[in-house]
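Dear Dr. H.,

I hope your travels went smoothly. While you were away I took the liberty of generating a structure for the chain from your last submission, since the lab meeting agenda had it listed for discussion. I wanted you to have the full record in hand beforehand rather than looking at slides cold. The sequence, exactly as received, is reproduced here:
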Amino acid sequence: MLYEENEILIDDLPKDYMEVNFGPHHPSTHGVFRFIARVDGEKIVNIEPIIGYLHRGIEKIAENRTYIQFKPLVDRLDYTGALNNELCYCLTVEKLMDLEVPERAQAIRVICAELNRIAAHLIFFGSIGLETGAFTPLLFGFLDRENILRLLEMLAGGRLTFNYITIGGVRQDMPKGFYKKFNDFRKEFPTKLKRYEELISGNEIFINRLKNIGILKKEDLFNWGASGPTLRGSGVKFDIRKVEPYSGYEKYDFEIPVGKNGDVYDRYMVRMEEMRQSLRIVEQAVDSLPQGEFQAKIPKVLKPPEGEIYLRNEGTKGEIGFYLVSKGEKNPYRLKIRTPSFSHLNMLNFALSGTYIADAIVILGSFDTVMGSCDR
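The corresponding predicted structure, in token form, is as follows:
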């Protein structure tokens, strides 16, 4: 058997345990992810996460592309939050080049990042409904996500991978019709979000499936490198937008929602409240959008000075970080990417051991992983 060579692990398993395969093509694994669960009846004894089914070598490709040529590929990491990926990569290169981005471009970037955050959380809302046996939240979540994608389509022309945020600013200015469309959205969305919470947040069956399930203490999350809503669900008030502000986030007034118990329900509620806070940020950015240029002047061929840098931002699922090494050439010498989904999947055995199979699906769903950002 797969684990016979590990005598310690075999000794810890019950004699009559059974192995159950989940994935790599299972709806509840949120992508091409496989894990082998060793179960004693309905209870999971331990699991072995297996990634690599979506490996595309993005980090290696960076060494053979110019800085600008590589940028569209970062959209393909966490494709539910592509604009946040773009923003982090561009901030990293700009920091290395000591390049100043116009204030108007910074505000537009914030608008893009927060609208994309809402869209990503709406996918989570629909998915967590599916995992607890409710199909309606998925339909509602995608309906509102469609309204956001229409707004982003006006800016970027794309609907999933945008290639809109560029090194030095954004690719084009905000169109005139955006303001009217956004005003329609800002009037409707808070009411819809309230209805969605009435639909399942107070539902007795939903609460019983999520409350006191998958409780994670903040000390353990620190050890495993957790971040984003997964970390904040356990009561840790840590948000990179507040701790290390970028793109002018220090100018915007917003709260950091946190949970109390660290269970799946808290991680769900944190994301629901984050959607309200993200809309609050976008409203402030749109209402105070400064005049001026939307793109800094940069050379056609970028050659950042020799050096290395690590820069992070608050992605839709947690900390996104780019570690970039430059030798002063037109291509990066090395590029390594830190994604939250990879860290969260690494702690899956810790989080799922001792739980039941039905709860394991809900706990995995509460991490909101995307496999494109794991298999880099």
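Two observations you may find useful: Residues 1-8 have pLDDT under 50 and may be disordered. The CA atoms of residues 156 and 162 lie 6 Å apart.

With kind regards,
E. W.
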